[in-house]
Specification:
Number of strands of chain A: 8
Number of domains of chain B: 2
CATH topology of chain A: Rossmann fold
CATH class of the largest domain in chain B: Alpha Beta
Strand content of chain A: 25-35%
Order of helices and strands of chain A: EHEHEEHEEEHE
CATH topology of the largest domain in chain B: Rossmann fold
Radius of gyration of chain B: 20 Å
Shape of chain A: globular
Largest sheet of chain B: 5 strands, parallel
Strand order of the largest sheet of chain A: 3-2-4-5-6
Structural class of chain A: alpha/beta
Distance between the termini of chain B: 15 Å
Strand order of the largest sheet of chain B: 7-6-5-8-9
CATH architecture of the largest domain in chain B: 3-Layer(aba) Sandwich
Strand content of chain B: 5-15%
CATH class of chain A: Alpha Beta
Oligomer: heterodimer
Number of helices of chain A: 4
Order of helices and strands of chain B: HEHEHEHEHEHEHEHEHHHEHH
Number of domains of chain A: 1
CATH architecture of chain A: 3-Layer(aba) Sandwich
Radius of gyration of chain A: 16 Å
Chain lengths: 179, 320
């Protein structure tokens, strides 16, 4: 197994800052914007984007957490049912621009599940998608609105994201090849 | 999967397929179910109380014995997960024409049932069914033997209120001898590290050695006032009135005098002690009405939590 770093801590910090600026620009400010991080690593990323927005726009955007386990389409195909963690969206998403945040965009199935989960909770006026890494190989017609870095990959490779809030240690994104 | 006859070996799968009692649950697995139940409770608090998780799965509630809360609770849990839920009651079915339990199960299997939720007056009946059914079986109460989903919802209610199970003193009082609720709770609470006290008149508990053989740490008592000192949880069991006909109790009044949960008795445990009852209650017999509705009572919470816990179990079995 070999591991190659594609984003270092500084690259992640810059990508998060750029995504925050793009969100503010695309939505002409963030007055009506809310961020929703997809468990697990979308959650700290959403918090980081919110922190940058608080600095550059002087607005505290609401931040929620979405667990999509109950909306997966592969229950029973991947072994034991994973523990379902809580969804915590302590604000009304109806009428807002909701920005879904995740670390890696791959097949698009997680995002599909997240869209279903979100629309069960209310009727956002618009949903956008922000990801740290887009690795391609979509199986559904889904694309991201804000991308930290596009990384061409092979299907048998894995992308591993480490964020200190979840994993401890230093931030980084890696490509892992099975030898 | 064929609907053919023959016994399904118990070890056909290396993961959990049935919920028959809590004796084969580790503390870790119970912990995972409690964690998932928190999320299911969040779903039940939404405007749209439904997620698509079990779409296309068929759950048959097979009740050979009367039930209100357990049956409705399982039905709501299945529906909240988008499963097809069918209710089967023995009355009015081919069971009245003499169809056997195993033939009934084979029929339900041929009709496409993925999971059976089963209540039966014979202890052990769900174990027999599990040997002949290719899907999952959940025991919703069998005779005097076990009621694992009640125990899990009791554990969840205590866990949500007190934040832990380990180290708590839990007093279970009442007709222990005939209680499947007591037995499953005993497995659950001891496995999670609680200290359990069983309290009953001697005629309703049987020999101490029987209990100690399986649970050496257990305390057995016939003095409720003494047992309640330092209790974190007290759970009263339903006193089935037919027990008196067997000569096990002199009178209901006599029982109440020594074993009913009264405000004075609960005060011995202190204001932090949770009051529980699996229902249905005989108010005025094993619990006084003012205690059942007091601020310390979590009896209605137990019922509400039952749906979330059963959702967590249905989800877990479907995934495995």
């Amino acid at each position: 197994m070999s591991e190659k770093q594609i984003l270092a801590a500084d690259d992640i910090r810059r990508a998060v800052t750029r995504i925050a600026h793009e969100i503010a620009e695309r939505n002409e400010g963030v007055a009506n914007v809310a961020l929703v991080g997809i468990r697990r690593r979308g959650v700290p990323l959403a918090a980081r984007i919110a922190a940058v927005l608080a600095e550059i726009e002087q607005v505290r955007v609401p931040v929620g957490i979405l667990d999509i386990t109950l909306y997966r389409d592969d229950l029973g195909l991947r072994g034991p049912a994973p523990v379902v963690h809580a969804t915590a969206i302590p604000f009304d998403i109806t009428g807002r621009t909701v920005i879904l945040v995740d670390d890696v965009l791959y097949t698009g199935r997680t995002v599909r599940a997240a869209l279903d989960a979100l629309t069960d909770l209310g009727r956002p006026s618009r949903i956008q998608l922000a990801v740290l890494v887009d690795r391609g190989h979509r199986e559904l017609p889904i694309r991201a609105d804000f991308v930290g870095k596009n990384v061409p990959t092979a299907r048998d490779e894995r992308i591993t994201t480490r964020l200190h809030e979840v994993d401890g240690g230093e931030d980084g994104v890696f490509i892992v090849r099975q030898d | 999967m064929s609907a053919g006859a023959g016994v399904v070996p118990a070890q056909a799968y290396d993961r959990r397929r049935h919920v028959l009692d809590l004796d084969d649950f580790s503390a870790e697995e119970i912990g995972e179910i409690l964690e998932t139940s928190v999320s299911m409770k969040e779903v039940l608090g939404r405007a749209i109380k439904q997620v698509p998780t079990l779409r296309g799965k068929t759950i048959v509630n097979m009740f050979f014995e009367d039930s209100t809360r357990t049956r409705i609770s399982f039905e709501l849990a299945g529906k909240a997960l988008s499963a097809n839920v069918v209710n089967f009651t023995a009355r009015g079915s081919s069971v009245e024409k003499g169809e056997s339990l195993i033939d009934t199960v084979r029929t339900l299997q041929a009709l496409g049932a993925d999971m059976l939720v089963m209540r039966h007056s014979e202890s052990g009946a769900p174990y027999l069914v599990a040997q002949h059914f290719h899907g999952s079986v959940i025991n919703a109460g069998d005779g005097r033997h076990a009621h694992p989903t009640q125990a899990l919802l009791d554990l969840f209610t205590v866990y949500q209120r007190l934040g832990r199970i380990e180290g708590l003193k839990v007093v279970i009082v009442g007709d222990i001898l005939h209680s499947r609720v007591a037995r499953s709770n005993l497995w659950g609470f001891t496995r999670m590290g609680a200290q359990v006290v069983l309290c009953a008149p001697q005629t309703l508990i049987g020999p101490e050695s029987f209990w100690k053989a399986t649970w050496p740490e257990l305390t057995i008592s016939s003095n409720l006032d003494e047992s309640l000192t330092g209790a974190d949880v007290v759970m009263a069991l339903r006193l089935q009135k037919e027990r008196m006909e067997g000569g096990l109790l002199p009178s209901l009044r006599e029982y109440s005098r020594f074993f009913a949960l009264t405000a004075e008795r609960v005060a011995l445990a202190g204001p932090q002690c949770l009051v529980m009852h699996p229902g249905p209650m005989n108010e005025g017999v094993e619990i006084m009405p003012d205690v059942a509705t007091s601020a310390q009572s979590v009896i209605e919470e137990q019922v509400a939590n039952g749906v979330a816990v059963r959702m967590a179990l249905l989800y877990r079995l479907a995934g495995e």
